[in-house]
Records
---
Amino acid sequence: MAESATFRIWRGDTAGGGFQDYTTSVSEGMVVLDAVHQIQAQQAGDLAVRWNCKAGKCGSCSAEVNGNPRLMCMTRLNQLDLSAPVTVEPMRAFPLVRDLVTDVSWNYRAKQGIRPFRARPAGADGTWRMAQVDAERVQEFRKCIECFLCQDVCHVLRDHRMFDDFAGPRHMVYAAALEMNPLDADDRVRDLRARHGIGYCNITKCCTKVCPEGITITDNAIIPLKERVVDRLYDPVTRLLRLLRGGGDV
Amino acid sequence: MPGYDTSEHDVLVIGAGGAGLRAAIEASARGARVGLVCKSLLGKAHTVMAEGGIAAALANVDDRDNWQVHFADTMRGGQYVNNWRMAELHAKEAPDRVRELERWGAVFDRTDDGRILQRNFGGHRYPRLAHVGDRTGLEMIRTLQDHGIHQGIDVHMECTIVRLLKDGGRVTGAFGYERERGRFRVFRAKAIVLATGGIGRAFRITSNSWEYTGDGHTLAYDAGAELMDMEFVQFHPTGMVWPPSVRGILVTEGVRGEGGVLLNSEGRRFMFDDIPENYRSQTADNAEEGWRYTQGDRSARRPPELLTRDHVSRCIMREVRAGRGSPHGGVYLDISWIKSRLPSGAEHIRKKLPSMYHQFKQLADLDITDAPMEVGPTTHYVMGGVRVDGDTQMSSVPGLFAAGECAAGINGANRLGGNSLSDLLVFGKRAGEHAADYAAGRQLGEVPAPEVEESARRALEPFERGTGGEGPYQVQYALQDAMQDLVGIVRNEPEMRRALDVLADLRARAAQVGVGGHREYNPAWHAALDLHNLLTVSEAVTRSAIERQESRGGHFRDDFPEKDPACATFNLVVRRNDDGSMQMSRVPIPRMPDELRRVIEDMK
């Protein structure tokens, strides 16, 4: 490995900014976040970066490294071409705060709008039984560390800025975890269509590709939810029955 | 408060990990208007790092388990200097707290008959840890977060408190800054719950994130509350040691619970060489029995790898110092060997320890289903903290409560793995409940304007000195080196005296650090403000460790290598003198009721 490398880091705030080059020493096993910290400690004390666990578990240090949405703490330098400057820039889908830090508060608001878990009544002994295989289906979604890289890369959000209409892949995964939880007694199918905009997803699977937890977002979460929406709200027979029962339109 | 953005709450909870969230939920359920301050974004707190599980005597896997066994295990692990009342409440209430998480949406691993599965862990006599693979902490914090956001709690993200405010003797508010814009904030509250976690960043090798700078400990201490048991710091035996950039990152005890063994460079399972007297009757004396234990054989005793963390850490240090360590100064932790016992061993490992598999694969280019890991001790947890009442979690300052890692008592001299997550739930709930009750009968107190002004002025001093002064990171690194080298796993008086000198010198340097740039999201500024906390807790750890002239639990001295029964009768307590110096006292441990005494005798 090279003894030093150059990092082209985006510096600036809402008023503007640009890339700035920093050269720093590198050693075995280093990740991008180590390099950013080293630059922060030695050359640019006020370089803003958000991080916590440095072990891929908290999902705080999301950024775009050489244009790819990544967790900085899990991106090894030996996976990158160090002969050219490594660009490090903030997630582009969200408003900038400063340097590598973005305002991800929209995600928190979007989640708030999804109906929370509501447990079905417990068994006679006050507990619930669940098969491991059912637990595992939900656990895949619950691995999500809320790094929001899937949101960053989703073109409905990133390019079309439909933050008011579409809750994004992260929240489809969240809704899937609730809908497929065998203990949950609530129903989010109508909301998924009417409020969370599941129809806007056209299954390009960009979100699945960038998920650092390897969650199969599109195939395992979004498509099954889309199927539920279709079965419930667009199936001609159930639709007719609903109209006859006076249940109103979808 | 004119000139400052001010919010008013009945109960202000500082810290939004497991304890803080649970406290906020409880206080809110009791009708209090609750504010929740997070140093980072909501859901990112250090609780996400917890891997192994939540200890609770649900008795789903082994019906011999009950609160008495859990209580006795906790006291034995803590070497009997625990607050026995807290250990009792914890053991009794943890099962309900776990079931409550399930009611709020947590999805635990299951037994064959569909109940919550429990796994073995160090120091627990029976399989006791409710878990989700090796990411239990994430499951817990996400469950509390997703439940909590619908309880009408005001969440203040990326906000750091630097001072508590008092009126007369009682706590009335807090002063801090928000990271994003650097603006100061004043919080007025009738009661405050500290749930800020630990102090791991005072050491060079640690599993803790940047947030763990002893904030709550220091806020309480500066406000006149007492800190107890600060000499007891837990060095987790298995942190990553290679490559250098990941040194200290945790390797869950679950690896050993699933059958992982510790080996030295000669391939010897050295943990069999040193089994402490008080655990001998419960510990396997051969490899075969140890393996059977990990596979659920109820007649087998646990392997010595699952002895308490303090002991395992010292055994690893001994091997390394004797020249029998791994190439990078650790020992080997091997789980891959279980393939010789289980036909689908590799798949089993990936399923039971997914994030460990992932972590080593990505950060160390190592497949743990194929090769042993290199591991060594890492600073993980502080047993010491704010001295609180066992039932209410209130400190000696009226209206100031503490829960979770920043409170002392339940763990005594050493914490058992898995007891932390249950501690957060049990005492988070209790703190929230009693803080709400305390607030219910009271009006908001005054927040003293001069103190706010002075705090604001002091917080801005690093900017006045600018980048001409020494940077905060250099002081922080020097402090971490001193604590690691002089007050680490093996201690003695001359080295710790030297540490006190170094800390005094660093305090002078900290008063002179300067930072550049402006107040918006400026990490150097935040690091400069954290220094006071790191220095305070480091001094408390060092002074307490000098005072305790014996070895017990996480506190080991090579000049007093034995346990001294005379030292089992007191806790060490520090508080701030009016002149700013640290006052040390020995507080006798109250006599345990006969009922609890008998429980311990019966379990011996």
---
Amino acid sequence: MLSSFKKTGLILIVSVLFLTLTAPVSYAVDLEVFTMFGGADPASGAYQDAISEFESMYDVDINDDSSTMDDSVKVRIENAFQANNEPDLTMYFTDEQASPIINSNNVVSYTEEIFPEYPELKDRYLEDPLEQQCWKDDHIYGIPVTGFYEGLIINEDLFEEHDIPLPTNWGNFITAIERFNEEDIVPIGAGLGRVPHYIIEHAILVMAGAEQHNAGLKDGVPQGWIDGLNLIKELYEMNAFPVDTLNMGWEQPREMFRRKEVAMLPEGNWALGALSENYDTMTILPMPVPPEGRGEYGSIIAGFTSGFYISKDAYQDEKKGEMVIKLVKHLTSKEVMADIVEANAGLPSVKGINVNDLEGLSVVEREGVDLANLASSIVLPTDAKISRPAFQEIVDGVAYIVEGEKTAEEVLESAREIEMEARRGEE
Amino acid sequence: MRQFEDDKKVIIMFLIPAFAFIFIFLLYPLIRTFYNSLFYILQNTNPRYVGLGNYQKLFTDSGMITAIWNTLIFMIAAVLIEVGLGTVLAILINFIKRGAKFFRIVYVFPVVVSAAALGLLFSLIYNYRVGLLNTIISWLGYNPIRWITRDSSLWAVIAPVTWRYVGFYFIIILTAITKIPKTLYESAEIEGANRWQKTRHITLPLIFSDIRISIIIAITGVTKVFSMVWIITQGGPMNSSQVLGTYLYSVTFQRRLFGYGSTIAVFIVIFGLLLVVLTNKLLKSDDDSGYGTPGM
């Protein structure tokens, strides 16, 4: 038995140790940061390294709340800006989805305030990526990190094994669907009931062409959009998708592709990281255009639709203002950007990065970057052109269209009504 | 009198923190939700007053009508399976002398497992290619089946959700049964009553108020069903397994229609309250029939 003196001494020592270990270390500046480079994102490692490096360079503590994106996270970020409780630095979308962020009036305009004071930040960027960030009022509120591209990711070895030509034109594409069906391999991996996003974008692009694709729904429903959704129905009737496609998310088609149960996967560069086991047997191609399509082979969905927003409060804060700019400069530096490009196979937005010099990129990832660089035209995704509820109406409508419960016209007319109501709200 | 007044002050002082907590975290959000339901709010920006427009939309929205209908089916299934099976199991367990503890743990186990984990488990069980059910079917030499279709999806989510709560009602009913005085059964035995007669004339009447409470909890619980349905089907295919909770999430988080989402939330509260009142009324006459309650 311990004497009461010893007991008291022990408690004191434990208490002192506990307080020493748990006492907050004070830094000159604390920054709240949110990015999409969290969780399983392929760039999360490169980003964490960049943050650690920054913390070792300055007397700063980064409270990093990065997370992979889903609807609940998006709503959390949007609401944080609405409540003026936003992080000091936020990486978020810069397309139509940025409305709640920019309309909150809590972000700084790079065009008006930051670029005049820090011209070197503007100078480091390539012209196109920066131009794409221009909001409706011609201001830039978010500066890009890496760009994305979408395409048809191909399990090339399956085509070789079954002597099927690669889908470089519509005829080959249809042949591939028919032949893979005979071989009991799913031709196209996509979940039409839950996340048909990428097949929607590809189908509308090839049937509508870049001009109609970009038109959105505000001036009426473009015929090309109707044709695009009908194309998905045609493919569904050809058994091009998995049997349980109406109850699939995005994970299952990727997993099936990885296990060689799927031949073609309409996806974006962000999916490549999860398919690294197949790098040696993969390639990426543009979606082929049907004879009646208005699109052009080589035209792809790509762009720079996410970037760093700086909170007004942080920028105007005596201590935080300077530090948050330093952090943005660090994260968009050539070195950090190259690391991120190597990790997520995205498109660099700053000058001086040659993807051919990046040893960490696989052949298929280089092909992906080439696909974007050599594209005949580049268009932004469908959800960058229309409001969120209108896009969701189309997403939800795909299952009804392919099952013959609704026509493409009905779904798109309904989406247009929703779009017009959303736009009335903006005015 | 003075003493009483002092007590009153103390009582009020103790009640204030609880009331403040309830007001801040329950009443104010409820009032705010009702206020928001009168606006068109997209992504929480630029609210536009629409009066009762969202409420009119509520009853013409096919997704909402499907969700209400499915929720009602879910409620019937919850009462029959969760409470019904829970009661049957509790009565049976009360009969056995050996192994009762083991069965108690087995039945209660799903209640303590998180809904997300069970949802994931069942989505894997139903999986077309690698799922447990189709693996067994393949072993038996048959072709795999699509377990989640437009016709089957609602039952595919009802099964795991109700199965999960059987144990919860089982424990409530079992506790009620154990409170029944043994002397009643002994007297019945002396009179020559068999097990069925003892159950019919002693057990069931004396646990009726607990069954009624269980039914009310089960019914109101269905208005809150979300996680497992969302993980297994996301309310699909084509809204076929949509329930009020998942439709609320879909409208608010996927479509970002905060005003209309608030309208659905208000509807769920009113709908839940109405069902409680209705259930109470329907079951009240039986309760007043002179059988008494088991809390004796």
